[in-house]
Amino acid sequence: MKNIIEKIREGRTQPTHVDKHIAMITGQPFFPSPIHYRNEETDDRYYHIAGSIGWPSKKPGFGLILAVEKTDSKRPPFRVLEEHEDQDIERLMRWCLQIRQKYGFKRAGLMEFWYGDCQRFNTIVSNFNEKQNRAEKYGLFITPPYDFELSNSFEIYLNQIRTCLSTDQSGTKRLYLGEAKGLVNHIKNLPPDILTKGKIQDYPAIAALGFVIHTLTVSKPWEQTVGYDELGLTTFEQYAVKDQQDAFRYLQQGDGFMPDAEIETEDYGMISTVED
Q: Three-state SS across the chain?
């Protein structure tokens, strides 16, 4: 399958002293990565591309590719690029191996692992990868998404999806499903008691979407940390400025500060109907 993703490096590769000084004052130690990706077919630009997989149960298994669009927003939008549904585990894994070739595997350094449950069907996945290894091919490697070990992880993922599908004050939303009609149907058909009775293994499509959205929202792999340049304090005025900066950072971390990675947990209604 033809690779359509080009890796582009532009801008500063390292933060300047000015970046570090601003980070120290604001308490926001992040610097945009100089790397982004271009879709050669559409010319769309992405900060990141990732894959996610939900294993089959009573419902078919589900795989998807999600991109983080390159914008000036601090909360860049997510867009589903590909989806695939299959009851057969091995066919689902083979789709993952094929589709990753299209979205930057090896050529752009993307898609080397997929978010999912790395314990369930571990034996099947290991045997599959052993066959890949004997054929001198790269296997399918699964890594757990953020907060997967928590007892309420499915609730967290559902709320993250609902938050990203909801419009903000400007009338825009963060998650776009595009041509992913399968996901749209799965979301529309969720039962009213999904948050209280739903389990990850019972909703593979919803789980796969929640895995990747929550992990990318929290980890923000398109940003890199800026190290502070802590200068020696030599005058009373410098001590006063330092105290003021520390107080500012403390207030940001208090009860009144909610970073972008926080999710809504107060509204436990169903995910709303999706229209793209």
A: CCCCEEEEECCCCCCCHHHHHHHHHHCCCEEECCEEEEECCCCCEEEEEEEEEECCCCCCEEEEEEEEECCCCCCCCEEEEEEEEECCHHHHHHHHHHHHHHCCECCCCECCCEECCCCCCHHHHHHHHHHHHHCCCCCCCEECCCCCCCCCHHHHHHHHHHHHHCCCCCCCCCEECCCCHHHHHHHHCCCCCHHHHCCHHHCHHHHHHHHHHHHHHHHCCCEEECCCCCCCCCCHHHHHHHHHHHHHHHHHCCCCCCCCCCCCCCCCCCCCCCCC
CATH numeric code, 5-252: 3.30.420
Beta bridge pairs of residue 85: 62
pTM of the full predicted structure? 0.77
What is the reported pLDDT for 78? 97
How far apart (Å, rounded) are the C-alpha atoms in residues 44 and 60?
31
Residue 263 exposed, middle or buried by CB count within 10 Å (0-12, 13-18, 19+): buried
Closest to 273 in 3D by CA, of 199, 187, 200:
187
Residues of the chain under the 70 pLDDT cut:
11-32, 224-276
Distance between CA 141 and CA 206 in Å, rounded?
20
- In this prediction, residue 222 carries a pLDDT of 85
Return d(Cα 169, Cα 165) in angstroms, integer: 13
Q: What is the pLDDT of residue 225?
A: 61
Task: Report pLDDT digits (tens) over 36-52.
Answer: 999 999 999 999 999 99
pLDDT, position 275: 47
Rounded CA gap, 220 and 261, in Å?
9
Structural domain boundaries in the chain: 5-252
